[in-house]
Design brief:
Its main location: membrane. It is found in: Membrane. With 452 residues, this protein is α/β, with parallel strands linked by helices. The protein has 4 domains: 131 residues; 40 residues, no CATH class; 223 residues, Rhomboid-like fold (Up-down Bundle), CATH 1.20.1540; 45 residues, no CATH class. It has 19 helices and 8 strands. The protein has a 6-stranded mixed β-sheet with strand order 1-2-3-4-6-5, sandwiched between helices. A two-stranded antiparallel sheet has the order 7-8. The longest helix is centred in the middle third of the chain and has 26 residues.
């Protein structure tokens, strides 16, 4: 029963910190008591004791110390809430001047606190994940110092939680991460190797190369009806230069592995896979429809989705794992910013911005605790996702125009014909769907394009 009361105290502390904006006051004198303060709240100080023994009501030197500090900043009378946790439902609530005493347990505390805190319905004593989160205010030097001490202490909860988190990443106990890495890092490497050894695409521009291995653009994916390209464009890392491809792929593989590892630990494997899968297809669709003049391909979209999903998940949080994740996101942020410059392709910024955006939106929608109701934050997630889906659909409903001749599109159709991937009749049908009055024919053994 003692441990249950202690857990209830921790649940209360986390609620007041995360939902009501209170800050913890660290003390070494009594592990059964927690002190919280919020200079902007009506009740400025909260004292939570994991015991029903109330002889210390209105007689606590630490409370006096906190109150004196608060009085220096404000001349208002300090209102203090004294909470005593009990395993019975016996009521002994009391109000003396500006001091409020409440005694209760998980069965009646919510109703007792409701007159003072309108959001107290969000308090969940049975939420184990809330209990495990270790909150740290980085602006509070004492808390930062305590965090460092706890990390050095192998027996502390902070150290154990950090070690567990670290071991999962180091030992490869992350199924989702390995699936994502295999699909969007190892498969592209095999494709690059295949192109360099067997296909030998000499003197072929990068857009044609990307389209050849599954890249997407408006002409082929939307007008030509090759919708499968929204599923394959992430494997098309090719830039027609073998060495450049390997360097960029290796860098992106490192970023994907890092972001995916942290995301899976914090978000969860299933949710992460859903975010990546859905976000990947939506990005492929919106890039194909909304930016018709460009060819898109490459696993950089996965890095972008992962970055957006993780960023919005840890943004504003002060628990130890979130703080660690934020620090580890600095390198990926620089990578995503400079990658288009390294690749000499400014259009990649469209891929990155789309990936980050849809990753953020899906992360909000899938990670929200719907028991807390609907608010502006959740609305923003749905708005982002809905926008990314509806915009390309609206554009598809608008009467399509006949695009100008696009050499990479024509080149890749010709390459498919020459290598037996596509019959000449099917290639000409695609040309007709696009609206081009040109056809492929064989002049002897030479494939040529002629106007009709």
């Amino acid at each position: 029963m003692k441990s249950e009361i202690t857990n209830n105290r921790l649940a209360l502390v986390n609620y007041f910190i995360k939902k009501e904006g209170y800050k913890p006051q660290k003390t070494q004198k009594n592990d059964e008591i927690s002190y919280l303060y919020n200079s902007n709240a009506k009740i400025k100080i909260i004292r939570i004791k994991a015991s029903s023994e109330d002889s210390d009501f209105r007689n606590d030197p630490i409370i006096e110390e906190i109150a004196n500090k608060s009085k220096e900043a404000s001349r208002e009378k300090i209102q203090i809430l004294w909470i005593y946790l009990d395993d019975s439902s016996f009521e002994k609530d009391l109000v003396v001047d500006s001091d409020i005493k409440i005694l209760g347990n998980e069965k009646n505390l919510v109703s007792k606190l409701n007159p003072y805190f309108s959001n107290v319905d969000k308090l969940k004593f049975s939420d184990k994940t809330e209990e495990k989160e270790i909150i740290v205010d980085l602006k509070d030097q004492e808390q930062v110092k305590k965090l460092i001490e706890d990390l050095d202490d192998k027996n502390s909860d902070v150290s154990k939680k950090f070690q567990e988190f670290h071991n999962k990443i180091q030992n490869g106990q992350l199924i989702g991460t390995w699936i994502i890495t295999a699909l969007f890092c190892f498969v592209p490497f095999i494709i690059i190797f295949y192109l360099s050894i067997f296909v030998r695409l000499n003197n072929i521009d990068s857009d044609t190369t990307k389209l050849f291995v599954g890249g997407t653009n408006y002409n082929l994916t939307i007008l030509g009806g090759q919708f499968w390209r929204v599923f394959t464009y992430g494997f098309a890392n090719s830039s027609s230069n073998f060495i450049t491809d390997l360097i960029l792929l290796a860098l992106n593989m490192y970023i994907i592995k890092k972001l995916s590892s942290y995301s899976e630990n914090i978000i969860g494997a299933f949710k992460l896979m859903v975010i990546v899968a859905v976000g990947y297809v939506i990005c492929g669709l919106i890039l194909s429809v909304m930016i018709p003049a460009n060819v898109f391909g490459g696993s950089i979209v996965i890095s972008s989705i992962l970055f957006g999903a993780l960023f919005i998940k840890v943004s504003g949080k002060q628990d130890v794992i979130s703080i660690l994740a934020k620090r580890e996101m600095i390198a990926p942020a620089f990578f995503l910013f400079f990658f288009p410059m390294i690749a000499w392709n400014e259009s990649i910024y469209w891929v990155i911005s789309s990936g980050v955006g849809i990753g953020m939106g899906l992360s909000i929608v899938l990670n929200w605790n719907y028991k807390e109701g609907f608010n502006g934050y959740l609305f923003s997630g749905y708005f982002i996702v809905a926008s990314f889906i509806t915009l390309p659909i609206i554009m598809l409903l608008v009467p399509s125009y006949i695009p100008a001749l696009h050499n990479p599109t024509i080149n890749v159709l010709g390459m498919y014909i020459q290598r037996g991937f596509l019959k000449i009749e099917m290639a000409n049908e695609i040309m007709e769907k696009i609206g081009w009055k040109w056809q492929f024919i064989f002049d002897g053994n030479v494939l040529v394009v002629v106007g009709v």
